[in-house]
Amino acid sequence: MATIPLAANFDGDFVLKLVPVDSENTMDDVAAAAAANSVGIHVADQPGRTLRVKKQGTDTPYARDTTVADSGLEPTECIEIYFE
Amino acid sequence: MSATSSVSRPVGPILQSGDVAEAVADAAKVDNPDSNVEVRDHGAYVRVEVDGGECVLRRATIEEELGRPFKMSELEIIMSSFTGRIDTGNDEIRFYR
Amino acid sequence: MSTPMKPLKTWSHLTARRRKPSEYEIVSTNLHWHTRDAEQPWEVGHNGFMADFYRKYRNQSPITHSDWGGFRDPDELVYRTYNILQDGQETYVDGLLDQHNEEGHDRGLPPEWTASLLQLYTPSRYLLHTIQMASAYLMHMSPASTISNCAAFQAADSLRWLSRVAYRTVELAKTHPDVGFGERERELWEDHPSWQGFRELMERQLTTFDWAEAFVALNVVAKPAADEVLLRQLGISARRNGDTLHALLTEAAWRDTERSRRWTVALVNHMLEEESNREQLTSWVRKWQPLGVAAIEAYAAGLPENDEGAQQAVGAVKSFQRQLGLEG
Amino acid sequence: MALMERSEWYDVARDTEWTPRYVTWEELFPPELSGGEGLPDDVWRTYDEPYKISYREYVDVQRQKDAGAYSVQAALERADIYNNADPAWISILKEHYGAVALVEYGAALQEARFARWCKAPGLRNMAVFGMLDEMRHGQIQLYFPHEYVKKDRQFEWSHASMFSNNWVSLGARHFFDDMLMTRDMVSTSFCANFSFETGFTNLQFIGLSGDAANSGDYTFSKLIQSIQTDEARHAQLGTPLLQMMIENGQRDKAQKEIDISFWRSYRLFTILSGIPMDYYVPLEARHTSFKEFMEEWIVTQFMRELEDLGLSKPWYWDIFMRDISEHHHGQQLGTYSWRPTLWWNPAAGVSPEERDWLEEKYPGWNDTFGKVWDVMIDNFVNGRTEKTVPGTLPMICNLSQLPIVGTPSQTLRDTSVVYKGRRYHFASEVDKWIFEDNPERYRYQKNLVDRFLGGDIEPADLGGVLEYMGLGSIGPSGDDAHGYSWVESYRKQLADAG
């Protein structure tokens, strides 16, 4: 267990935000942590749709149950979070 | 207000609005008779632009427009900026490219 | 989120004082943000040349003080008042020049004297320029803005008199075209024995980087030496040779010298508030004084109608240093 | 004439070059301080400063300038701008003085370095006037806000900001230390005199003066224009140096230094000028947009100066031209969202009428940045004020020290690089390029996020961050300039619709 800060680019937001997550968190947890700082604050909610996470510069999202530790993301690397 | 000038290769001073600015703008027309002189009033400041890459201002002309003695160095008191290069003399100031 | 906070009467760092702050204090004190961290003056180039330079020559000077920011210019000059002061002074000098020109003053100067002016006066623009450069150095290296400001005005005063020397050079050349005014000054500054003492003194001062040593070398030794001979002793020679204009110009310049000395006294006193500084300051005066004396003697040897000039000048510099509590 | 004109004796006054005998030329002018390496030694005496003035003229003209500026202040104290102007205008004054006063004084040290280290004697003389000018700008811009500190504690930042760890101060220090304080004389002149003073200061000091006059603040309008009259003179110091470099085969080096300093200046001015011009200036006084001011002063006027010298537009011109329509909108959203971190009270600037203005000046604004404001306005209207301030920090650029922003769903992205084991983040490709050009210069600096993650800030929460940045000690945190009164029209819209 370790805290890993990530740079979150939440689709529709105007600024990258620092989001600390845990190495054991799944991508769903990561998406929720990012959403907590964007949805309803700077980005409108889209109820009923699923949030996905991908590493900036890649085309495919992580599987929703991939953990941060397994993703290989390094501290402060940038992830993109978007409604599927 | 348009940002681009209608004159080509414009040069000249940008002055704080007021009596001296008006006199200098008028002097620019007198001292550069063969060039198109555009004076654009932006409220707090006035742009004097002379086309063709040269603008001459003579102390004597400014004195005439102003109706009082004028030292060329006094121009600096109201000249916030200028376009082109500058050549500063005691009786004449020149902007050029 | 916001906590109500009471307005202040003045900048917070001045509120401890009981009295209303002066314009001088409001605009002059605590402006060197790069002294906030003695280890890292700048946000960039942490290991770079300029960080090393400021660490070594300013922050780690052997002269230390717990409160450099506490220094005050005894004249409390600010930019605004400096211009008012000097515009008035320059108007006076313009009047002198104008009036003497009208009266054909220069035409009456004897040839021996114009030769002396070429040897001892018109090349002084080089010396004044080195003092200007050295003062600009102190301006950007001093540990407090109140010190920097004094040095800045001193640099400007040097440019003032450099400009007047240039003016006189051309004016003298017009009346005395065959003497060499405006032509020979660089050669004389570089080679004539009169100037080599000051040249060595200033070249060495300009390559002394510890800010406090640079201050001592300039304001306690070199500038007093230069002012004593160039203004006072050459002024005496001028009077004795009927050059009223020159004598009056040196008296006008002396006002700036007096101001320079006032802040020099104040800064040395400030430094001596920490007794541990005395020995280092004294040793610097001892180190620089021989160069200062040599400069005076070389220059004064050429003073016409003024045999006692060297002795007078050396005595006056020493007396100033005694006043500072720093005997060389 | 009994008194000679300046032109008769001026050349003698600047003829002060001599060959040192007791020390070497290199000792007198060390390359790290003097710069201009590779230029032939005899080139320095050819330096010809274009804007000439004598000491006698200087003290006369400057005395008159100050007499004008200070008398306007005295006359207008009766007008009581502090109580009568729009509160957003007062915020502009707070932001301006806090960001500008002490660094202007710092520029006096930069000019003093020119007066000591430049190898061209003519420049050394003119730099003495430059040094005095910058003392003026520091002092007068401390004197004026000092009047206000008795009314409003936030004006304390006019003096204190550069000593603080506020993120805006970090950005300003990083910029000015990089551009003005730590480069050799020649490079500094390109960055400070040419890019910064010939280019960007016009934007704030002349452009904003128009807005000030429109807003009724004639003191400020006259003050900043008067300051710029000094800049117009001493900014000229750099141009002949650029020419010397170009003529001696160092065009590429000169171009690179302009490219670096141009971008750095631009990004700083998005905060200093961009936000106030488009969001704080009261709408009735807001005639010209930041983008239009940029087009007038930079895209047209400054670029003409560059091209006259035979230099090119910076390589990132396309990026820049797009950026002037968007970056400062992101920074406005950022500064407003994190308003407790500011030393001034930001205006939102997004009432329905103001949004129409923004949409007109920046077509597409409503569909991009406007969408983010919609969410915030919804929170305000429905009383969810706590949701209008984010609970985390923004990512911050390791060069500009500004939050990494972009147009929503279009240009927001991270630009990062790993150098010697540490990851650095940048707000653009250009910022990254500047870093990679000289990583040793920048690598040790820690931005606010680095400090937060590195444990320098305790407690590691927003409260700790505010305390670290001096909010609550130097002055109170920023809050909406108008006390959220602008939300009323939206509340009314909602009520009418409902």
Automatic annotation (TrEMBL), chain A:
Q: Which UniProt keywords apply?
A: Monooxygenase, Oxidoreductase
Coiled-coil segments, which residues?
none
Q: Do the record's keywords include Transferase? A: no
Q: Does the keyword Oxidoreductase apply?
A: yes
What the entry lists under InterPro entries is as follows:
TmoB-like_sf, Toluene_mOase_B
One Pfam family per UniProt = TmoB
Molecular function terms from GO? monooxygenase activity
Kindly provide the name given to this protein in its UniProt entry. Toluene 4-monooxygenase protein B
Source domain of life: Bacteria
From TrEMBL, chain B:
> Looking at the record's lineage, which domain of life comes first?
Bacteria
Q: Do the record's keywords include Oxidoreductase?
A: yes
Tell me the GO molecular function terms: monooxygenase activity
Does the keyword Oxidoreductase belong to this entry?
yes
In Swiss-Prot or TrEMBL terms, this protein is called: Toluene 4-monooxygenase protein D
Q: Which family does it belong to?
A: Belongs to the TmoD/XamoD family.
One protein family per Pfam: MmoB_DmpM
Transmembrane segments annotated in the record for this chain: none
From TrEMBL, chain C:
Q: What class of enzyme is it?
A: oxidoreductase
- Which InterPro entries does the UniProt record give? Ferritin-like_SF, MP_mOase_hydro, Phenol_Hydrox, RNR-like
Q: A single GO molecular function, which one? A: oxidoreductase activity, acting on paired donors, with incorporation or reduction of molecular oxygen, NAD(P)H as one donor, and incorporation of one atom of oxygen
Q: What are the entry keywords?
A: Monooxygenase, Oxidoreductase
Q: One short Pfam family name for this protein?
A: Phenol_Hydrox
What SUPFAM superfamilies does the record point to?
Answer: Ferritin-like
Q: What are the EC numbers?
A: 1.14.13.227
Reactions performed catalytically: propane + NADH + O2 + H(+) = propan-2-ol + NAD(+) + H2O
Q: What is this protein called?
A: propane 2-monooxygenase
From TrEMBL, chain D:
Q: Which reaction does it catalyse?
A: propane + NADH + O2 + H(+) = propan-2-ol + NAD(+) + H2O
Q: Which residues form a coiled coil?
A: none
Q: Which Gene3D superfamilies does UniProt cross-reference here? A: Ribonucleotide Reductase, subunit A (1.10.620.20)
- Keywords, ordered alphabetically: Monooxygenase, Oxidoreductase
Carries keyword tRNA processing?
no
Domain YHS as annotated: residue spans: 414-443
Single GO MF descriptor: monooxygenase activity
What is the name of this protein?
propane 2-monooxygenase
Species of origin reads Haloechinothrix alba
Q: What is the lineage of its organism?
A: Bacteria, Bacillati, Actinomycetota, Actinomycetes, Pseudonocardiales
